[in-house]
């Protein structure tokens, strides 16, 4: 018999709303901006005492989305109705020059050497392997890999086939014979 223990998150609710905040949220229900409307629905439901899982179920979104909206409103107030940038905040510090050079070296090898079934690198695969190999302290996105290649190594991902080589001693001859 297998018993799984889930970590239950404590219920979270929006803080008490001022009259102006409540009016802003009710006006947000009529917004043409889907983000504003959804946030307003979440926050008003929470102010009525509904728990995050129930709000998520009613609105067809994730429980974490509801919790994030509530946390954001509790911290920023009505400014939480304005969507923040979804751009990653820290792509620049994922790689320093040394780890970027190690990334280059990794990409010159076959992904199969790292237990992958493909012989071609993808940005996401490179991100996974970079983390597994200790090149990064945390998991990064493929976009971070692309930005690092461009910023620190001056390489554009689209041109990868021009600078990635194979450890195969016959690589150059095969490449020359493959012109179609």
From TrEMBL:
InterPro entries: Homeodomain-like_sf. It comes from the Bacteria. Pfam families: HTH_29 (PF13551). This is Putative IS630 family transposase. It comes from Rubrobacter xylanophilus (strain DSM 9941 / JCM 11954 / NBRC 16129 / PRD-1).
